[in-house]
Amino acid sequence: MATDIEQYKSKVTPYVFACWILAAFGGLMFGYDIGISGGVTGMDDFLEKFFPSIYERRLHAAEDNYCKYDDQMLQLFTSSLYIAALVASFFASKACSKLGRRPTILMASTFFIAGAILCAFAEVKWMLIVGRILFGIGVGFGNEAVPLFLSEIAPVQHRGAVNILFQLFVTIGIFIANLINYGTSTIHPNGWRVSLGLAAVPGLVLLIGSLIITETPSSLVERGKEEQGKAALKKIRGVEEVDTEFEQIVLACEHGKQVKQPFKKLFKKSGVPALVVSSMIQVFQQFTGINAIMFYAPVLFQTLGFKSDASLLSSVITGLVNVGATFVSIYAVDKLGRRKLLLQASVQMFISQIAIGAILLVHLKPTGSLDRGLAALVVILVCTFVMSFAWSWGPMGWLIPSEIFPIETRTAGFAIAVSTNMIFTFLIAQAFLSMMCHLKAYIFFFFSAWILVMGLFVLFLLPETKGVPIELIEERVWKQHPVWKKFFKDEGKSYEVA
What are the residue boundaries of the structural domains of the chain, listed by start? Predict the structure, then answer.
């Protein structure tokens, strides 16, 4: 049989490239929020208006370095978004299945813009929290629809790289947010309003983009629109010879139509491998400690003894490293594969976290600060950690779950993956400052232990999906894996095309 790349003809046209970029703004939207919240919670004007007790507490130089920001309401400002996204992801799954990927992306942008406006004009705490909840609904819809859209629209030989555009734009969003926070921290008293309000800009780009991009062929065929599906496939592939790929999509969708309750199917024996892998990747992604660093980077660097401006600048540096390293993943993921990147990064992240923890344990006391050389070394170690995450667990957390489910359970399975990501992001966002207060430097050893477990999981339980057509993952990946194949022993015959 000819290779899939030879069978599935395609070329990258300006239109399909524009579809990739416009949809990926969903990632920028998400990343901007991750980056902006940490910087805003470190601004005196913001704290004085909404969290005056914390503002007073941080003025005391002798206050415990690890505990000066430990406040549940301040953590709720950041984490409320993720509970909203958790709930929204299940509604987004239904929207993706019934309406399509494109309308779901449109809804995501609308909620996000509304959240930005409400936060920017907030005068009381409840307005902030409601604005964050609207942000969260937008994130839930966007994080459900965009990775699925990118995986389904990408040619098989570029699927990894195209899907990683989502994570690339997440990192760009974080970097832009850090730059904006660095600038708005000097605007008194309303710099924080500018930071939060500018979140509407990526939301607006995504809104316009959702009107330009095409619906995915899989979604159209799944909803009984075969002629439109074939036309869409020709449009995104830039060629007329799409019969082989289209036939595979139709067969996969016909197989999928036999499943009336996708969530129920997910929990059957044959659904367990993809469900376990996609969910555990989300848990592991959060327990690397990355969001603890990205959410609270300015706060973290202030704890290390940096002044306010210096801490924001350090966050800009880590943001730039995050963006640059994601390009490594785009280049390498379809060449080296998913597993090699994850295993290499697990080693690098483990060493970085252990080293950070050791330096802080020995040299950072509850009062006082690190000397300049050690503080700079910690920033370098944070950068090596961020770098390895950016070419591995960051993008793979969205890529792998978007490609390992069969068509009949794809939106439902990905909804569970997104909701798992959001609930553990919420837990880390809500608990990190309190954990830092109680565990102090040991928090880095806590995360490094998780990284060790992650590496072992990849080594023994994660299959490689590089170069496998998304409609054939079950046949060529799960049924061939030494551990997971036993879950398919009672399955019927394959529906793969020769």
Answer: 4-488
Tell me what the mean pLDDT of segment 470-493 comes to: 83
Cβ–Cβ < 8 Å for 385, 230: no
378-426 pLDDT per residue, tens: 888 888 999 999 999 999 998 999 999 988 888 889 989 989 988 888 8
Token duo for residue 476:
């060529």
CATH of domain 4-488: 1.20.1250.20
- The residue-averaged pLDDT of 358-373 equals 75
- 205-226 pLDDT, tens digit per residue, is 999 999 999 999 999 999 999 9
Inter-CA distances, 178 with 80, 93, 140, 182, 315, Å: 21, 31, 23, 6, 6
| Residue-wise pLDDT tens digits, 154-194 | 988 889 999 999 999 998 998 898 889 888 988 999 999 99
Helix axes 393-403, 159-184, angle to 10 degrees: 140
- What is the sign, positive or negative, of the torsion defined by CA atoms of 217, 220, 225, 228? negative
Contact between 248 and 471 under an 8 Å Cβ cutoff? The reply is yes
Task: Say what angle helices 338-363 and 442-461 make with each other, to 10 degrees.
Answer: 160
